[in-house]
């Protein structure tokens, strides 16, 4: 039988005693009624038919105070004998008195804990967001915390998409939160004052290195040297790129190779100077265009000091059409877990190992679910495979879902406290890993 153990924030029912006392049968009947009420809210009983929680006799601390329409609960489910799994769930209704936004640190290439990111924007709750360049990674570029894949705040793209990968998209329309999961891409363009045009390859990353691949232009998988438009993982390279840096990146652009060129831009896009090789302090409030290979040649020919350079980077669907609906925040993931209430075949690409997961999901009524699945704790919470994670969030009512960064990054913070148990490795102490960015829930609407 699948069992659920209400914990902090699981509602008023979590604080009621369900054990029988001197009155015996009436209390047992009340407990059974409570159990039925909980199971009616949360779904079915198997992973083919998603898990159904039942009430536990354990009491829980009161739920933290959250804005109207924002919910918090913790559940324990079973994936089979000896395989419990603990879920921390934030729900944000479309009419919640709250805002949902991305949050990152002082610079795009600087990692911070989810708790620090939540505090920096005054969030009442937050979970970790995108995958990112980590120092222990096989293909580390030297900038820990740099997001991998799509990341946008306030409608502005701060990290380009791994084109065609799914993302959580959040905006507002008619005073309501509009959340959805969709495959997304980014399209970048440059136009010089002399009319010359060129593709913009990326934003706020090391030129020539495309972690996760799925970029634009001539990206090639480093391990084979062959052209790969959208390999599932690895490091791609491109010797001929122009990458933009903006004020969100940080104080300095990376040191460039011989032959590289960088055009320095004022806040309005005016070229205020160039340097070769590229790399160094960025203009206050401005940014730069950083070229290697043919990209450097193009900048030397067309980025003239005193002229304006038009730089655009917009979010689109994989075919290049504008994304439907409002998009103020975008957080890219690795694979889609649910599509229309059905487990997506891509969920199996996460492999057969049970791991901690962070998932963004949307219910049929538009409610946004931010779910953290604990793992690496034998007998307490074993994590989940991709298909198991899909079934777990479907049992919460989700119809669409995307897998975000997980493992040691999987963290949920509510009212300044880490509410789950993030671990770097099996059986290790609970630790907070610095991450690239977070999905933050702020009061107000």
Polypeptide structure, described:
With 445 residues, the chain is mostly beta strands. The chain contains four helices and 32 strands. The chain has helices at 25-42, 114-121, 294-302, 386-395, and strands spanning 70-78, 84-92, 98-104, 125-128, 131-132, 147-148, 151-153, 156-159, 166-173, 176-183, 185-191, 197-199, 202-203, 209-211, 220-221, 235-237, 241-245, 252-253, 261-265, 271-275, 280-281, 287-292, 310-316, 329-332, 336-339, 342-343, 357-363, 368-373, 398-403, 412-414, 417-418, 437-443. The strands form eight sheets. Strands 1-2-28-27-29-25-26 form a seven-stranded antiparallel beta sheet, covered by helices on one side. A five-stranded antiparallel beta sheet has the order 3-32-4-30-31. Strands 8-7-24-9-10 form a five-stranded antiparallel beta sheet, with no helix packed on it.
